[in-house]
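Reviewers of the previous submission asked for a worked example of the structure-prediction workflow described in the proposal, so we include one complete record here. The input consisted solely of the amino acid sequence. No template or homolog information was supplied to the procedure at any stage.
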Amino acid sequence: MTQRRCPCGSALPYADCCGRLHDGTATAATAEQLMRSRYSAFVTGDAGYLQRTWHSSTRPHRLHLDRSLRWTGLAVLATTGGSLLAAEGTVEFRASYLREGRPGAQHETSRFVREGGQWRYLDGIATRPG
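From that input alone, the workflow returned the following structure tokens.
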């Protein structure tokens, strides 16, 4: 039986990568790992995981996932901080998608901080294509 690869781009099986974070058997060790797992949650439609990993000070009360988007790829462009022992970090990424058959991309620099010892998404600055 072939296991599907993780959407985050790690080349690992989903169950051995972001799946462990989504089901709660593991937690993100770095800001980048959390960002990748959040991307995978968008791919799989796991709004609960996205809510759980959002910092309490910026977490929306409700989260609506756009079902018309089909996420097709992730490229991590840069990281600062966010290591095993850090308290904060940023991850710049580009996430590709299709909407009604048309390609698009979200380019963002996301900020992550520790809350209760766990990495949480704080906020992000989206970059619009020029």
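The mean pLDDT is 94. We consider this example representative of the routine output the project will generate in years two and three.
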